[in-house]
Write a structure and sequence with these properties.
By secondary structure, the chain is α/β, with parallel strands linked by helices. It has a single domain, classed as TIM Barrel (Alpha-Beta Barrel), CATH 3.20.20. 41% of the residues lie in helices and 19% in strands. The chain is built from nine helices and eight strands. Strands 7-6-5-4-3-2-1-8 form an eight-stranded parallel beta sheet. Strand 1, helix 2 and strand 2 form a beta-alpha-beta unit. Helix 1 crosses helix 2 and helix 4 packs across helix 5. The radius of gyration is 17 Å and the shape is globular. Bound molecules: pyridoxal-5'-phosphate. The site of pyridoxal-5'-phosphate has 14 residues, from strand 8 and helix 9.
């Protein structure tokens, strides 16, 4: 299958999952994950209709954005080191991976320098896995409150990666937990914090994520095939 056929198949599956859940398909946005993917295939995905591209490393994204330009929106989905915040604010429309206050403060400082309000998501370690990035569930509301006091950062919602499993149904409880956490934070009515975005679901489990109200799904393999 070609990239455009894969892309169309994924968008069809997104629309079906949304309808099954009684949702408007346009309430789910597809982030096409382009890490390790070459320029030609990225152009193919954009020609097929991709409007958001996701990268997990700043340096790789920088090279691609310099080569390809702003052919779509660019999101950072991977871990961000504080010392790379300076580059990240220049490159990305949305940073999905803010998981500590020091990083939020540095993003704010760098965004202020270039006169930008940087949209971010708080990444949550939803299953409390030792090996995973993300803030602990019980610390996420505090991070949202602290980030709300920063003028050049705008918290739009939450992101998570559940434990790996072959069975997408195993992720459902974690997706639901992220949604419930977003609802809890939303009830606090923190100024400058909206909980409109839930970034969850990848190639193996995006339909379940949509049923649990994901607004951003991050899909690489189902569009480009297995990364070598
Ligand atoms: C690679 C990656 C994805 C996409 O994973 P696929 O299984 O290839 O769809 C999604 N989110 C993050 C954070 C990733 O690093």
């Amino acid at each position: 299958m070609s990239v455009s056929e894969n892309f169309n198949a994924v968008t069809d599956r997104i629309a079906s999952a949304a309808k099954r859940a009684g949702r408007d398909p346009s309430s789910v946005r597809l982030v096409v994950v382009t890490k390790t993917v070459g320029h030609d295939l990225i152009r193919e995905a954009v020609a097929a209709g991709a409007v958001i591209l996701g990268e997990n490393r700043v340096q790789e994204a920088k090279e691609k954005i310099e080569a390809l330009g702003r052919i779509a929106g660019w999101h950072l989905i991977g871990h961000l080191q504080t010392n790379k915040a300076k580059y990240a604010v220049k490159l990305f429309d949305l940073i999905h991976s803010v998981d500590n206050l020091e990083l939020a403060v540095e993003i704010d400082r760098q965004a202020a320098k270039i006169g930008k309000v940087q949209d971010v998501l708080i990444e949550v370690n939803i299953a409390g896995e030792a090996s995973k990035a993300g803030i602990a569930v019980n610390e996420a509301p505090g991070l949202a409150r602290a980030a709300a006091r920063l003028n050049n950062i705008s918290v739009k919602g939450l992101m998570t990666m559940p434990p790996y499993s072959d069975n997408p149904e195993n992720a459902r409880a974690y997706f639901r937990k992220l949604r419930e956490l977003a609802e809890t934070i939303k009830k606090e009515n923190i100024p400058n914090v909206s909980m409109t975005e839930l970034s969850m679901g990848m190639s193996g489990d995006f339909e379940v994520a949509i049923e649990e109200r994901a607004t951003l799904v991050r899909v690489g393999t189902a569009v480009f095939g297995n990364r070598g």
